[in-house]
Amino acid sequence: MGDADPVRGLKRAALGLLAVVVVIGASVWLDYDATISRSIVFGEEERFFVNRGDTLSSVIKRLEDQDRIEKSWPFIYYARLHGVGGHIQSGEYRFGEPVGIGEFINSLSTGKDQIQYRVTILEGWTFRQMRETLGRVDELEKITVDWDDGRIMAEIGRPDLHPEGQFYPDTYFFRIGDSDLDLYRAAYELMQKHLDRAWENRNEDLQLKNRGEVLTMASIIEKESQIRDEQPIISGVFDNRLRKGMKLQTDPTVIYGLGEQFNGNLTRKHLRTDTPYNTYTRWGLPPTPICLPGEGALMAAAMPAETTAYYFVAKGGGRHKFSDTLEEHNAAVRKYQLRRK
Q: Nearest 10 degrees: CA dihedral of 161, 121, 125, 334?
């Protein structure tokens, strides 16, 4: 008999090798399937941090180092196979329960389970109060704490503007890794949107010449009253006074101009003390806004109500008595102000 058929031998070797490959492949697949089918366990209140610069691979490797998963390669392969996790969001996550690999990667990609914090900036606050408030928020990264106001305005692209009034009062949500500068940018952009809307809807015969004047007037209205149905009337009074060439004579501008000198008690001496913001001693609007106005005040400044009043005085409860003449106004002052002293 002759030698064994070499072709047949090669076929047997190939089949044997194929069998080995199939067995190894099946073993790898079973290992992969078993690994990715297990949930990643997190405590109910546990926080998981993804740092800036982290990649999905580095995060998954960290899970392996923390013994949350047995091996990292099945998770990395899963992400590549499904085309997910190319970009992950840094921040602080709370899952609250075991999560599957797909849900985990999706959460890191979308930021769905990130912990959100909030900070509220109130209507009528000054920029200084806004800075003080952001400075007390522990979860915010403090970039601007040692900056002066001018540098903040330069960093948001408006070095030409005084910061007062330029930031919209609202509740802002943020995440770990966000900075105070991020919030200044967001608040500035939001104010521009609201100011644009007010300017686009302005009265045709509005006395105010530009968006900046609307913002300044809105800040005065905001400090005079935060009652929405009164704000357009107050705006109408100021509109009437401007048309007639009268001084605005509004107390909040005087108080703003006094700064830290003001102790809460506005006196006649204060009204006579000239500052760039004293609308009893100077004509027209002050040089800048005096606070952060909200939407109601912005719309009121752009669309003052028609009124015959030229004067108003606080009568309690945040409301005002409006008067057409100085004689009526003086009587209202005696009734609502002098009797309380």
A: 140
Span 252-305, pLDDT tens digits: 999 999 998 888 888 899 999 999 999 999 999 999 999 999 999 999 999 999
Beta-ladder partners of 91: 50
Cα separation of 211 and 214, whole Å?
5
* Span(s) in the chain for CATH 3.30.1490.480: 39-115
Angstrom distance (rounded) from CA 26 to CA 295: 64
Q: Are 324 and 308 in contact (CB under 8 A)?
A: yes
Q: Provide Rg for the chain, Cα atoms.
A: 33
Dump pLDDT digits (tens) for 139-182. Answer: 999 999 999 999 999 999 999 999 999 999 999 999 988 999 99
Extract the tokens encoding 309.
Answer: 């009043």
Give CA–CA dist 301/272, Å, rounded: 26
What type of residue sits at position 76? Answer: I
Q: Which residue, among 140, 136, 100, has the nearest Cα to 117 in the 3D structure? A: 140
| Closest alpha carbon to 95 in 55, 42, 170 | 42
CA–CA distance, 258 with 279 (Å, rounded to integer): 12
Q: List the one residue out of 160, 170, 177 whose CA is nearest residue 193.
A: 170
Q: What is the pTM of this model?
A: 0.82
Q: Which fold has domain 39-115?
A: Dna Ligase; domain 1 (3.30.1490)
Q: Hey, what are 280's tokens? A: 């009893």
Q: DSSP assignment of 208-225, as one string?
A: --SHHHHHHHHHHHHHH-
The token pair at 211 is: 């968006």
CA dihedral 65→71→73→78, nearest 10 degrees, is -110
Chain centroid to Cα 315, Å, comes to: 35
DSSP labels for 134-195?
HHT-TTSB-SSTT--HHHHHHHTT-TTS-STT-S--SEEEE-TT-BHHHHHHHHHHHHHHHH
- Joined tokens for residue 322: 């409006």
